[in-house]
Amino acid sequence: SPAQVSSCDGVLLDASASSGGGGRQMSFTWAVDSGLEQDQALKLALANTARDSGVLSLPAGLVPPGTHRFIVSVENFIRLRGTSSVPVTVVNGPVLGIRTAESEVFADRDDDVTLSVTVSTSSCFVFTGTTFQWALVSGPPLELEARSAVSTSLLIPEGTTVPGGVYNLSFTARGLSQGVQRESVIFVVVRVKRSPLEVIVAGGNSVVSEGSKVVLDASPSYDPDEAPGVMHYYWSCKPVLRYDGAKTSGRGVTSEDACFYDIDGVLLKDSSILTLAGTELSSTT
To answer: What is the pTM (predicted TM-score) of this model?
Structure first.
């Protein structure tokens, strides 16, 4: 839904977090598309906005009541350009404004997650009895810590989320102004990343005689997330090269060729244990 501001407040939009400049200064150009294109005072204010800041600040009274779509064009040093827009609704009355730095958060299960918002009230209206409430809208079960669930910062402790889980949370601000209960809501999505598998292979990093049997055992490998299901194993073998291209040991650069012709399909077996009879490998790494 469009961001709301009171007619007695100004409009503040911030596009400075835009990326794609490669560390160099980018240029920002603002416009409005809501029937106000011919508003000379607004056109002048947009034209005079600093092109290097990414912040649009318009004083109170300049934007009339109604919903207006503001457009920002961002250009980098090689003239590549991107455009985005945001609707803003100006109302004649008190408004509880809520802002958050991120509407989507990616997190590791082993890290604390803190969601923070900023709540502002209309400068020319008085609010009393303001309350805040975080809630889980959808996703895996998640018990919200009682004290932070009624503040502007919600703490989700490490280990309380599910790997791969997607949590849709809402933040609601309520307050009384002019005898009417006012309410504003925003939503934040938390996506918990899955951990990579821990691959452990016993029997490697060793020196054996040519023709000797080689057994590699990957059964100690495990999933830190303990996700349900069966692990599958995919084996491959490539010789290590010297920098001049000759096969040798200890250089860490691999050939694109296979170690041997796998006519028996030894490497194709979905098994945690790989057994080479000793006739497949030549004297190399």
So the answer is: 0.69
